Amino acid sequence: MPAPAVTSEAAIVASARQLLEERGAAALTMRAIAAEVGVKGPSLYKRVRDRYHVIGLVLDQVADELTDLLDAAASTGSPMTDLRAMTSAYRRFALANPATYGLMFTSDPLIGGAEARSQRSSTTLLDRMEVLAGADDALPSARMLVAWAHGFITMELAGAFRLGGDVDVAWDFGLSRVLTALATGGHEPAGHSTRSS
C-alpha cells in the first residue's frame, strides 16, 4: 500500500506564494493549494486551518523577508544613505513580488497579525528616521516616506506612468526630495542657506 501524501507548512506557504504571483489572490483557494503541493484537501487541513491561515503565514514570511532586506540595506550608519537604500530595497521587493506586495495591505480581520508584522518590519526604518528627523517626527516622517513610496510603486505596477521619461530617474528624484524635506523639517537644508555665517 503506498504511503499517504504528506506536506509541510513551508511547502504550503511556497505553493501559496507561487499561486499568488502566477494567478492572483482570487486563485488562492485551499483546493488549488492542495493540488499544488500534491495532497488531498483533508491532508492540507491537518497543517492549516483555512485560506485565511495560509494568507497569514504568507504575510508572516513576507514580513520576515522584508525585515531582513531592510536591515541589510541599512548598512552605512548614515540615516540619509540608509533610508535611501531601504526604500529602494522595498521597491525592488514590490516589483519582484507584485501580487504578494498588494496582499501586504489587506485589512481583513480574519487574517490578523498586521500590527505585529508592521512593527517587526519597521524597527530599523523608525530608528534611522529618528536620527534623520528627530524623535518627535520619526513616526509621521516614516509614514510619509512609506506612503510616497507605496503610491509611486502602485502607479508603476499599474503601468500608470504614461508620459515617457525614465521612471528610475523619477524615483530617484522623488526619493531625494522627500528625504531632504524630512531631514530639514521643510526648511532649507544646511549648506544651502543664502545667509552669511
UniProtKB/TrEMBL annotation:
Domain HTH tetR-type: 6-66
Domain of life: Bacteria
DNA-binding region per Swiss-Prot/TrEMBL record: 29-48
Gene3D superfamilies associated with the record: Homeodomain-like, Tetracycline Repressor, domain 2
Alphabetically ordered keywords of this record: DNA-binding, Transcription, Transcription regulation
A GO MF label: transcription cis-regulatory region binding
InterPro entries tied to this protein: Homeodomain-like_sf (IPR009057), HTH-type_TetR-like_transc_reg (IPR050109), HTH_TetR (IPR001647), MT1864/Rv1816-like_C (IPR025996), Tet_transcr_reg_TetR-rel_C_sf (IPR036271)
Pfam families xrefs: TetR_C_33, TetR_N
Name assigned to this protein: TetR family transcriptional regulator
Lineage of source species: Bacteria, Bacillati, Actinomycetota, Actinomycetes, Propionibacteriales
